Amino acid sequence: MMDVGTAAPRASLQAMLNFAWGRQAFVSTEAMDATGLTRSTSIEALDALIDVGLLMELPNARAIGQYSKGRPSRRFALRADAAVVVGMDAGRSQLTTTVADLSGATLAMETLRLDIDSGQRERRVAVIAAIDAALATAGRARDDVLAACVGVPAPVNSAGASPHQVGGFWQRMNPGLQELLETWVPIVRIENDASLAALAEGSVGGAVGLSDFVVLLAGDRLGAGVVVDGHLLKGKHGGVGEMMAFDYVFGVESAIGIGLQLTDWVREAAAAKELPPGHSLAGIPVVELTGRMVLDLARSGDPWARGLVERAGALLARVAAVFGSLYDPERVIVAGAVAEGLAEVLEVAQNLLPMEINLPAPELRLSCLGAGSVSTGAVAGALDAARADVLKLGVQVVRERTVAESAAVRS
Predict the structure, then answer these.
(1) Is 237 helix (H, G, I), strand (E, B) or coil?
(2) Exposed, middle or buried by CB within 10 Å (0-12, 13-18, 19+), for 284?
(3) Fewer beta carbons below 10 Å: N end or C end of the chain?
(4) What is the pLDDT of residue 218?
(5) C-alpha span between 94 and 173 (Å, rounded)
(6) Residue 410: its pLDDT value, please?
(7) What's the number of CA atoms in the CB half-sphere (13 Å) around residue 346?
(8) Buried b / exposed e across 205-221, counting CB within 10 Å, b at 16+?
């Protein structure tokens, strides 16, 4: 094993790794220009990153038939297959686990259903089983994992822990996952699920290029990831974006998700026999009515369902106004599995929002990432953590390069 700190200054290595990560093949002169390092320091850093297994050297331009006057520049690329990362959306009722290489390419994705009443021990066992299953599908082993990032429906502080909550829900959702995974994963990151949805939107979704935005994760309960001045906000206990405060906001009064609110409203109306005579929902058992049915009917022009959509839009406008007043975002993105059906709700909310806020109203937008926003953010979070912390490990990422590969690189 090689201590990377002896090969080149750590700052130079990190600058070079930041440049190389996520890029296709590049030449040494491009790396020098981008990092501002001298030629000798650049080459020293590149060679050190090769030695620890993060980079590989490619045949130079002349060797692949591209003419070059004078001495051809050396060519390099990230070793995407040097290790894998694991991203997990650890929801209440299921675990969605993604294994990706260091370029972010998905190698496997597995979903494991959970008993929603399972305890801490059962959840810990399930998390490990889900990761092992995804690794097996990807044809990789635990020793190949460089970093793991898990999103949970609970506040998470900078140490990966969730605060105590009466009733124990947060503890069940995050039953010491940081310590559990650190026993065999070199780099571990535990985050609130809405925070990871925000990371996904900022990386590949509707907030690319923005420095100030809020992602509203609209599942069974509302949660939010908040980015201000380019920084994901957490708070002392990871509570930024927790929605319990909406219990005290007139016109909202709870953190129940929009889809679930619509379900509650239509069931309440049916139970109270308030559905219009002959309405298409009148003959459906109350327990089978859903918010999705309301959205579909409103889209087809049903006036009664449209009334519930307008009620939901007013609720969303009030929620967005609170975030707009607190954080002054440029955009509020509604994410999660239910988001794809909320276009009409969003339209109502956007029209009402300017009357709910004194600051310029943020733009409301539906996420294009669907139900996979937290999974996408978890992979992005694992890759970010790997890039930031791998050099701190001070050891090779891969054990050995084959003799044939070494000979090919240096020929």
Answers:
(1) coil
(2) middle
(3) C
(4) 84
(5) 11
(6) 41
(7) 19
(8) bbbeebebbbbbbbbbe
Q: How far apart are CA 404 and CA 409, in angstroms?
A: 9
The token duo for 67 is: 């003419």
Residue with tokens 């379900």: 263
98 φ/ψ angles, rounded to the nearest 5 degrees: -120, 135
* pLDDT at residue number 399: 44
Please give the full DSSP string across 47-102, using - where no structure is assigned. Answer: HHHHHTTSEEEEP-TTTTT---SSSPPPEEEE-GGG-EEEEEEE-SSEEEEEEEET
- CA–CA distance from 42 to each of 68, 125, 395 (Å)? 21, 45, 20
Nearest alpha-carbon partner for 213 in 330, 374, 324, 321: 330
Residues 6+ apart with CB under 8 A from 324: 332, 353, 356, 357, 359, 361, 362
Q: What is the pLDDT of residue 326?
A: 94
Cβ atoms of 130 and 110 closer than 8 Å: yes
Strands 222-228, 213-218: pairing is antiparallel
Q: How many CB atoms lie under 10 A from the CB of residue 104?
A: 19
pLDDT of residue 406: 41
Nearest to 241 by CA among 319, 330, 316: 319
pLDDT in tens, 50-85: 998 999 999 875 555 554 555 677 899 999 999 999
Q: Which residue has the tokens 């001045």?
A: 229
What is the pLDDT at residue 68? 53
CA-based torsion, 121, 122, 123, 126: positive or negative = positive
Residues of the chain with pLDDT under 50: 1-6, 67, 399-411
